[in-house]
Amino acid sequence: MHLARREGDSRGMDSFPAFFPLRGGRVVVAGHGAMADAKARLFEGSPATVERIAGDAAMDRRSYEGARLAFVAGDDREFRRAASAAARAAHVPVNVVDDADLCDFHTPALIDRGSVVVAVGTAGASPLLAAVLRDALEAHTPRRIGVLAALLGRHRGEIRQVFPDLDRRSAFLRTMIEGPVGKAALGGDADLAAARLEAALAEVHQGRGGARSP
After folding, report:
1. Which of 87, 80, 84, 150 is nearest to 115 (CA)?
2. Model-level pTM?
3. Each residue of 155-207: pLDDT tens digit?
4. Same domain for 197 and 127?
5. I need a surface site. Which of 9, 93, 181, 202 has the fewest CB within 10 A?
6. What are the strands of the beta sheet with 69-72, ordered from one edge?
7. Do 43 and 102 lie in a common domain?
8. What is the number of domains present in the chain?
9. In this structure, are 57 and 79 located in the same domain?
10. Residue 149 contacts by C-beta under 8 Å, 6 or more apart in sequence?
């Protein structure tokens, strides 16, 4: 999918947004203080293991080996420089709080809905602006949208098998999202949403829906 660029925009993205899978992964947070605590809190409830380190361990590349991501926070720039260099030596992308020159990536302002995560970034230019935009978007992001995404994810293989054609599959998914399945999921009844989705797929399997898109 291509993003539309408004007339008058003279440049493209300054940074590319990407999502790192967390299940089974390890995230290292190096340093002490409120900012280090804040980075660790980002992963509360996630399937990642968060490891806090400080002192000599933060400057040892072995502390970072195998991690998915690393975050460094501290008042001492030499500490930040040494810790970020250690993470980078272990081939781990690192974010250094309030030190853009040492960052491999920037932390966006997040809306966390489980399987659905909305991220707003400014390439490090203005975290406050990102937060303001995040707050504006949050009111329009249903709280249970992650439940719907997880349900569709669990049935992804079956849906692809039933609808190998991309256009037909997209039409089916849109009907599920905008129809009774989505309504049940967003209304808090995950079991009913699952039953409705399974019934729709069963109807296609049995031939009552034919090969047509719903």
Report:
1. 150
2. 0.81
3. 999 999 999 999 999 999 999 999 999 999 999 999 999 999 999 999 998 87
4. no
5. 9
6. 49-53, 26-30, 69-72, 94-96
7. yes
8. 3
9. yes
10. 113, 114, 115, 116
> Mind listing the pLDDT tens digit for each residue in 63-97?
999 999 999 999 999 999 999 999 999 999 999 99
Domain co-membership, 30 together with 102: yes
Domain termination residue (choose one: 107, 129, 163) = 107
Give the integer Cα–Cα distance in Å for 52 and 161: 43
User: Are residue 115 and residue 158 in the same domain, yes or no?
Assistant: no
SS3 content of the chain, % helix, strand, coil (to 5): 45, 15, 45
Q: Are residues 102 and 162 in the same domain?
A: no
Q: What are the beta bridge partners of residue 119?
A: 110
Determine the Cα–Cα distance for residues 65 and 191; give it in Å rounded to an integer: 41
Cβ–Cβ < 8 Å for 146, 113: yes
| Owning domain of residue 116 | 108-141
Closest CA to 58 of 48, 67, 47, 49: 67
Structure-token pair, residue 37: 């605590």
How far is residue 109's CA from residue 127's CA, in Å, rounded to a whole number? 7
Long-range contacts of 203-212 (CB under 8 A, 24+ apart): 204/162, 204/163, 205/162, 211/168, 212/168
Find out whether 87 and 115 touch, Cβ atoms under 8 Å. no
Report which residue type is found at 74.
G
Strands 94-96, 49-53: pairing kind = unpaired
State the distance between the two ends of the chain, measured CA to CA, in whole angstroms: 23
CA distance 43 to 41: 5
The residue with tokens 């997880």 is: 150
